[in-house]
Amino acid sequence: MKNLVWDEDLRLYRKEQEKGFDYLDGGEDQILSYLQSIDDKSVFSDEVKRGATDWPSYYHFSVWRHNIMRPIKLGKEVNVLEVGAGCGAITRYMGETGANVVAVEGEVKRARSVRERCADLNNVTVCWANVFDIEFDRQFDILTLIGVFEYSGRYAPFDKPFHDSLRKYRNLLADDGKIVIAIENRMGLKYFCGYNEDHFGKPYLGLEDKYGERDVNTFGKKEIKELLEQAGFHDVTFFYPYPDYKFPQVILSESAVSSPELHTGDLISGLKAGSYSGVFRTTDMNYEMICKMVAQNGLEADLSNSFLIIASKKDAGNTQIVDDELLAMQFNFERKTPYHTVTEFLQKETEIIVKKKLATQLPTNNDLIAHNLSDSPYYIGRNLGALLQEAIFKNRPQLFDSLLSKWIDFLIENAAVKKEGVNLKSELIPDYYDAIPKNFIIDKKENLYYFDNEWQLRQKTDIGFLMYRGSIRVYKDTPFFKNNYGNFYSFFVKLCTKAGIEKPTKNQVEQWTSLDTKIKKELSSKPPKYRKINWYRIKIDIKNKLRLAYKMIKNRLDI
Asked: Mean of the pLDDT values across residues 15-19?
């Protein structure tokens, strides 16, 4: 960075006369102050999680944020330029991989937060400047624009800000370099469902193309692909983060979307879309059920709420930064930190392999339950838990009963230590502790396959406890069936009766509830509580409305 100076007080590089951007979420002072007050600033830091007390801090401290970069191969030999680093959530992750990261942020409070978040990482350099004002003394292997490219109309000093900024970014890449873009899809499913446009807080604004000439602007798949190709990029590849790139829980590849075997609908249909400028939406459509139909009709790509895009400066050759075998990634970060997992679905010649691994290397000290991860085959079919939810939403109690009976029959036949005279008190085989409906696949011949067997209970228990665990989780999803089943105990009694098992006593249910609660306490992490209302966004929305009103009045006066 030839034209930047080192600021010893701020511990970052800056231009001597830097004025900075005016972009703020409204919580930057609080975020910076909190980062300065804690010791552990790592990706999975419990201290960082506890700092999420309102919407801006949750956005910048969320453990889900960095997932958007997990498909990308990073390491010590990789030089990364991160444009628009925000408050350092993704910077921190890339730094922890060992990559050499130059993080550029145009707003000073945010730049200081990046520096603070990465204070112990010597491989991270922070610059407070507009990236277009910096004279770099090197080229980069990867240039990232995570939630940044859409702001080019506002901050890029070019006549054609989106096109010309891409050309500028291309010049900053090494010959085999890649640009990585995460951005909202203006044609995303949630916008058709009436959710507010993320930047302006109004429904249908992007769909109707009401963006201003020098304003924030998002794109559909075809639009942004053409922009990249016109700017000289090659091999434009799309990935599809669900529910979006901000908090990805699942990331699908193009191969996943086109795979005849991978059932993407079961991966994405339970994920709720985010509403980031207020909770308003114009319809009561069930977004989760529509996701299933989107996948069933092969529209996961076009209607994805966000894109993750990778494009090459030149023809890609052998310089891929994502594993060719990767179909999809799934993240489970709702447990306590040592139990966070990343699941990869990999295409291995003629079969799909499911590879599950820990996201951290933190030790566990747990005498109650064992956590064992291993590779497993992918069973072709539908997820039993998803099918039960469909039966609920379609108000089909007979189908619901039939599916649950299949599950109970499987447990009676396979999950008990003894194979004859099985009852609720029969001893449970430890490997079947987690054999609840969502961990079963049912194929076209209605055969059940138990998968995702990552938990084994260390203490002896009975098969009734497993039936209780699976049943109570299903029961909580049955609001339409209250008239059929009443309270949970009545529901469970009817389920056991239909399966030909003796009626459970209330004392048994209380004992199972106590054990289940004990296990949950050991494994589960309470989600942070924060104020959902984003007053800063509301203020911006009011400003935008006043600006539009001013233009209308001015135009009328000119007439």
From this structure: 72
